[in-house]
Structures are given as structure tokens and as C-alpha cells.
Amino acid sequence: MSIQVKICGLSTPETVEAAVEAGADYLGFVFIPKSSRNISTEQARILAQGVPSSVLRVALTVDADERTLDEIVETLNPDILQLHGAETPERLMELKARYGLALMKAIGIAEPEDPLKAAVYRDSADLLLFDAKPPKSMTGALPGGNGLVFDWSLIAGHRPEIPWMLSGGLNAGNVAEAIRITGAQAVDVSSGVEDAPGRKTPELIEAFIRAAKAA
């Protein structure tokens, strides 16, 4: 089975095209105002035009309210809502009832007990994302997309009851090793395909997807 790849934080037509042509399975659009990758819902709609239906569109938010999510869903019509905040299983059930969309819940990993927190989402999430939890000392850190790598051995052998994806500081040089250690069948990258914060390049996107698919 080929490794699935998500390219997150896309913001230009060139990088969207590069991701699709290189074989990305998911395209992530960020709706977090303080993120360097934040775009408007209208920008996301334009970027997603013409993307094949086989490539899933993911809308990333952090503890967003209904007004924000309503606009995202109405304008972008995403396939998946990625929830990267402190959303509870109850909140996920509310969102599933309201929008009828697949939900991806991010789980921050830093300590051995962190992967176990995923179990509470088995009935409400459709997909999990294991990402590096930023240290408290990291001022201004976002919940994800900080380019941090966590200890992959913390989730080695951990098999949630629902599909999951690996994220956190991945790049073309380390993704094969990350897959080998964790057994991940899907990987997510953002900063690892950028040459500056929020600025992705087609070359790095292509290199990452090629490395992940070959792992």
C-alpha cells in the first residue's frame, strides 16, 4: 500500500499544482489568523478549483466557532475538517451533526501517555493526526506546524482504532525513517516543504512526496 501524503498550509496556485501533480492525497488549507500560512476562505476556494475529486481538501482550524466554520464549509466545501485545538469528543459530535463532514483530530505528542489520549476520539473522529506538542517555553507557538519533531518511538507499535497520520517536523530527508519507526501509512508536512515561514516551493513538495511514496 502506497503511503498517503498531505501537504498542509498551501497558499499559491503553483504549489497546489505541484502537490497534485506529484501525487498528494490531501491538500491542507489553514484558517488560523496568527499563522503565516493563514488564507481567506475565498483564496482557498480559488486554489481548490480544478483539484481532482480524488485529492481531498482539508480545512485546518483551532477551536473555531460555528460562524467561522459555516463560512469555511460554505465557501470551500472541504472534504475534511482538521481540528487542531482543544476540541472535545462532544464538540466533534456536534460538528459532525452540523456539517456531515469527516473530522480529523490532532493529538499533540511529547510524553509517553500522550498517544493514549487518542482513544477518547474513537467514536467521534474519522482520522487522527499525531503531531509534535510544542513545549510551554516556546513563545507564540501554534498547536502544530512549528517544524518540531517528537520522539517517534512514543507511537511505535501504537495502533489506534481509527486511521491516523503522522506529522511534526517531517521533510524529504527524514520521512522514510519516520515511517519505518512508527509504521505510519499517512504523513503530513508543512514547514518541511518551505524555504521560509509560510513560503512553500514546488521543488520541496515534489521531493517530499517522492521520498514518502518510496518509503
Please explain how this structure is put together:
The chain has one domain: TIM Barrel. The termini are close together. It contains six helices and ten strands, in the order E-H-E-H-E-H-E-H-E-E-E-H-E-E-E-H. It has helices at residues 13-22, 41-48, 66-76, 89-99, 175-182, 202-214; strands at residues 4-8, 26-30, 56-61, 80-83, 102-109, 127-132, 164-166, 186-189, 194-196, 199-200. With 215 residues, it is of the alpha/beta class. Helix 1 packs parallel to helix 6 and helix 2 (41-48) packs parallel to helix 3 (66-76). Helix content is 28%, strand content 21%.
What is the topological layout?
Blueprint (H helix, E strand, L loop, with lengths): L3 E5 L4 H10 L3 E5 L10 H8 L7 E6 L4 H11 L3 E4 L5 H11 L2 E8 L17 E6 L31 E3 L8 H8 L3 E4 L4 E3 L2 E2 L1 H13 L1
Parallel strand pairs: 1-2, 1-8, 2-3, 3-4, 4-5, 5-6, 6-7
Antiparallel strand pairs: 9-10
CATH-derived topology: TIM Barrel
CA distance, first residue to last residue: 11 Å
Count up the domains: 1
What gross morphology would you assign? Answer: globular
Summing up helix and strand content along with how strands pair, one would put the structural category as alpha/beta
Radius of gyration (Å): 16 Å
Average pLDDT level = 93
- Going by CATH, what is the homologous superfamily? Aldolase class I
Low-pLDDT ranges: none
How do the strands line up in the largest sheet? 7-6-5-4-3-2-1-8
What sequence of helices (H) and strands (E) makes up the elements?
EHEHEHEHEEEHEEEH
* CATH class bucket: Alpha Beta
